[in-house]
Specification:
The structure holds two protein chains of two kinds. By secondary structure, chain A is mainly alpha-helical. Chain A folds into two domains: 46 residues; 237 residues, MetI-like fold (Orthogonal Bundle). Helix content of chain A is 69%, strand content 1%. Chain A has 13 helices and two strands; from the N terminus they run H-H-H-H-H-H-E-E-H-H-H-H-H-H-H. A two-stranded antiparallel ribbon of chain A has the order 1-2. In chain A, helix 3 runs antiparallel to helix 10, helix 3 packs across helix 12 and helix 8 runs antiparallel to helix 9. In chain B, helix 4 packs across helix 11, helix 11 crosses helix 15 and helix 13 runs antiparallel to helix 14. Chain B folds into two domains: 62 residues, no CATH class; 206 residues, MetI-like fold (Orthogonal Bundle). Chain B contains 15 helices and no strands. Classes of the chains: A mainly alpha, B mainly alpha. Chains A and B meet through helix 1, helix 3, helix 4, helix 5 and helix 6 of A and helix 1, helix 4, helix 5, helix 6 and helix 10 of B.
Chain lengths: 325, 293
Amino acid sequence: MDNHKPKQAKNLKGGMAIAKGRFVLGVTLPLLLYESLGIFVLGWALALMFFDYSSGRAGGPILGLGGSNPFVGIKHFVNMVNGVSLEARLFRTSLKNTLIFAFAVLPLNLAITLPLAWLLESIGSRFKALFRTIYFLPVLTSSVGVALIWMTLYDPQMGWINELIRYFGGKPVAWLSDPRAGFLGVSVAMWAVILAYLWQDYGYNMVIFIAALQNVPQELRDAAMIDGAGPWQAFTRVVIPLIRPTLLFVCVMTMLSSFQIFDIIQVMTNGDPAYQTQVMILDIYKNAFRYQRLGWAAAESFILFLIVMSVTLFQMRVLRTEWEY
Amino acid sequence: MAAISFPKSITVRMARPKRSSQKIGRFLAYFLLIFGLSFTLMPFMLMILSSFKTNVELLRVPPTFWPETPTLENYRTIFNDPKLPLLRFYGNSAFVAVFNVISTLFTSSLIGYMFAKYEFPGKRFLFGWFLTMMMIPGQITMIPSYLILSKLGLLNSLWGLVIFSAVDAFGIFMLRQFCETLPNELLDAARIDGASEWQIYWRVVLPQLGPPLATLGILNFMTNWNAYLWPMIVLSKIEVRTLPIILTWYNSTHTGQAGLVMAATVLIIMPILLVFVYFQRWIVEGFTMTGFK
């Protein structure tokens, strides 16, 4: 502004430093306050898991801990390992189901997304954008909507999936409610939610793979083809090694989001039949907000946190290595 | 394709056997892609078709594909249902999503800019703190956050839903990256012209951040619009609920009336889906840039 008289350079610098300092202080102080709240919430979460806490009871003076919400030490964790109560057994069931879900989703997802992304990359570009948009639609759809759509498809009488089975001469299945039906040792209800989740999710990994494949130099593929490699060999021997960092990253992200699956399962089965689709967050949710066992639920959350954290740390360790090509 | 640069004799020799196999390959590729496409579209299609069927037709076995007597009855019932003021629920969802987008864009750009362009003691420590907080999944803090809201009397309030997400560690990371690329000369020129630090942020830095803010904004909007677990915990009164919880509530109160439920699903997910499709470029960019969902 021109009404300011030019000052000496030194003065100007000093004034600037003060102004900068003020700005930094003005931003960091509220931020520190907010982040302290975060630490407080985290500390509370960590404290809760050592108490038999229920929000219905008054409890002790500090955050309602103690008193009628007694301190129980690591009892919750001991219970999780060898308890015989219903909640202890349900915890182990939900841990098992979560692992089944995650380890079924990951390979199936890769088996769909990687070839599709590769095909999409290899065809002419005229329809590419349209294809990608359509494949991406379910990712943008609310999981509740996805769950409701698939529930009508899985309907034992009127659903289209059973209609297809009948058309090919098979026996209809009560997909979401038959506790005895299973396939490869996993209940059909679990397969049903896995399929719905895959449908919702594959577009996401696809666009990531497409982005990675676009970065693979075309010359490298052509060189391999000229050297006599077929398209399949060019893919497995040249392209896959080049997109390895992305592949690893996608594996970890898919794993993490599968461990935290909730929406689709809560709407479609709510853990039924016979707790065959009870996954960890659903179990935590029910314990905390339906049965008021908040201490127990906090302990469960901590186990989930440990799992998620170890997958994340694994990712950070492995991905630290830089690949160059 | 690469064979073009080769001497002609070689091109001819290679191209012959390749062309027919390439044709088959292309055909196979299109076949698989279109198969996947119909698998992706079919559930949407069936949902829309079901919403135009009468309940009698929907109970029929085997199911019909095209509605035999297309009807708007389901939509009429929903629009005339006094217990389902859809506009109100749209408003609730819009409030939560818009408030979250505005607050996170403001805090992310401001804090990201500060981390990128200012030196101060404890900066590394503060940033490390963020890094740690970002990795903690929401489920672990869900229970105490709920208890805090209940102590503050903010359960069943849309404000309670938005206050915990006003600062987005991920957004701060993203905008710090972008702010680091801004030339220092630009900021210093503004300083010499007498602009205050806030003016620099507001008038000089913010206008440069258009693309990353658009990406972050649409990602956060989508996450909030589709959020289910946390709103379900916080909002138990019907009139303050957001759309996803309303949809499950409507489903549970209208069991056996698939036509109505599908019409409600169409009304609740389709309009915003079209908006997301329109902004798809930003969403995909955000996903691939960050791998964040």
